[in-house]
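To: structure desk
From: M.T.
Subject: fold request, one chain
Message: Could you run this one when you get a chance? Sequence is below, nothing fancy, just the single chain.
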Amino acid sequence: MTDQATQTLNAVTIDDSMSAGSREAEHERQVAIFDLLQENYFEPVEAPGGGPYALNLGLSDGRLEFQITGPGLERRHLLSMTTFKSTIKDYFLICESYDQALRDASAAQIEAIDMGRRGIHNDGAEKLRERLEGKVTVDMDTARRLFTLICALHRRS
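Reply: Done. Structure tokens follow.
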């Protein structure tokens, strides 16, 4: 059994072959990576001896690519983006509504939209956990942060 404290990510990168996009998108990506590295639980199934691990996220032939390296470990997992597309689309739409609401809506309206935004974000994180089952175990907070990066990656593609 491995020490739970070593089941973490200590490096996260997004495939350099894609441009960063706008300054805003680049900032969002950097904040998401920073938040993920501050606190996460990441345990590849059947990893020999524990982490910490490095993760490179990318897109390969329209699929989400997880390249994981760590002590004695080098793995690549491909996940269909089809599972996430409608959730990502809904998430982007509600984020636009939220940004608009910040400009001209009441506090109650902003709070209602934010609750919906968080709900969609949680749905995306749960889908990610389900798709990673049998490959990598992550807690909900880590899944949420990874979903944020997947959205940033999708926006760039």
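Reply (cont.): The mean pLDDT is 88. Let me know if you need anything else for the meeting.
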